[in-house]
Amino acid sequence: MCKAQHYHKSVSSSFVIGNRLKKISSEFKEILDISSELAALLDSKVYLVGGVVRDLILEKDVFDLDIVVEGDAILVAKEVAQRIGGEFNKHHNFGTATVAFKDYKVDFATARTEKYLSLGSLPKVRPDSLIQDLSRRDFTINAMAISLNKPDYGKLIDSYNGLADLRKRLIRTLHPRSFLEDPTRILRAIRFEQRFRFIIEGDTFKLMKEAINSKALKLVNPHRLRDEIVLILKEPDPCRYIKRIKELEGFLFLDDKIKLDKRSFQFFLRLQRAVSHYQKKFKKHRTLQVWLMYLAGILIKLDPERMEKVFHDFGFRKGERIIIRSIKVGVNKIKRADKNIKAYLLHRLMSPYSFESILFFYAYYPRRSLRKNIENFLDKLIKIRLKTRGRDLKALNLRPFTLYSKALKKLLYVKIEKGLKTKKEELMELKYIFKNLVKSRR
Ligand code: CTP
Question: Could you tell me if residue 71 is inside a domain?
Answer without folding.
Answer: yes
